[in-house]
Amino acid sequence: MSEASAGPARQAGTARRTGLRDLRVTAEARARQGWARVHASWFWILQAAVAGTIAYAVAFYAFGHAHPFFAPVSTWVALGFSRDRSTRRVAELAVGVALGVGFGELMVRLIGSGIWQMGVVLAVSALVGRFVDRAPLITTQAGVQAIVIMTLPALTGGPFGRWVDAVVGGVIGLVVVVLTPTDPRRHLHRQARAATEELAGMLHTLARGLRTGTVADVEDALLRGRTSQPALDEWRESAGTARDLARVSPATWRHRDELTRSVSAAVLLDRAVRNARVLIRRAVTAVEDGQRTELAGELLEAVARAADALAEAFGAGRDPARARAALRAVAERLDPYAMGSDDWQAQSLVLLARSLVVDLLEAAGTDPAEARAVLPEL
Fold first, then answer.
1. In this structure, CATH architecture of domain 183-373
2. 288 with 215: CB under 8 angstroms?
3. Cα torsion angle, 224, 230, 234, 236, sign
4. Per-residue pLDDT tens digits for 251-266
5. Domain-wise residue ranges, the chain
6. pLDDT in tens, 77-127
7. Concatenated DSSP letters of 215-238
8. Does the reported pTM lie above 0.70?
9. Which helix (H) or strand (E) holds 39?
């Protein structure tokens, strides 16, 4: 093969290897996050499945309905597969299902079923849902279930058998919620740990690339940072929901301050990840230019170990004192002038790392002014 044709071939091979590496990193991140979601939801899915089965059995045996379709439907809609099972939310969903089924049954008896009847039933059921309560869940479920009633034949239980099934399912769902109170903090602890571990893993990979001067490792760190966003979003959204629930639910009032801190920590960690991505983009350029980045890699490895400690503390629900101490020790070393006056690439990495460490210190509970005061003066 001639030298002229070998060049494009090498480039194509490099592009294929890069594409495969990107695919591997993305697949690993998706698998980690998927298993985390399964781990967080399996109990609630199993519980809702058992409750739906009980609702079906009650409607079948107690009420003699041969095909109690809406009993498990109502239970499943009310409980779902997540931990967000406040009594009010479950009641709203159960009422919405029962309202839609009952109103649909009534309208079918009065005006029959057909094209124009569908429009009338959908509009009126939604208006009734808005009249009953301001909750959008009630209106949504009322409309959806009314549509189902208009399109499915009556399979069970007399004139209002399907409405009875829906009520049975909703009651079973409410009973499950009342008898199985949950602590919203446990799920948040798992989510906080998973999100922080994503950041720590990204920093470990970046630090390795900087120490060895390997562009592939630095690019893998950037790709992992991009795929970490779903874990951050889930934590931030769950923390916000739990905090809002604690404002109105007596069962979680005592956790309001901790849940509020979790919201703040989620926002700060999201900011830290965004700063880390900017840092990684700068690191790609520095490594490609052949700059000496070993010292910056050592500093970032220390930040990664501190993030590991922070993830462990978040997961256990304890004060991250060890993480704060580790981050303070790193912050005191983040002096760009220590990199040398002529090494502007390494200096820029240290400058970007300062913002990252401040965000992590604040997420660990340090006052913002105090977190900035730890840094060496510029």
1. Up-down Bundle (1.20)
2. yes
3. positive
4. 666 777 777 888 888 9
5. 44-179, 183-373
6. 888 776 666 666 777 778 888 888 887 888 888 888 788 888 888 888 888
7. HHHHHHHHHHHHHTHHHHHHHHHH
8. no
9. helix 3-57
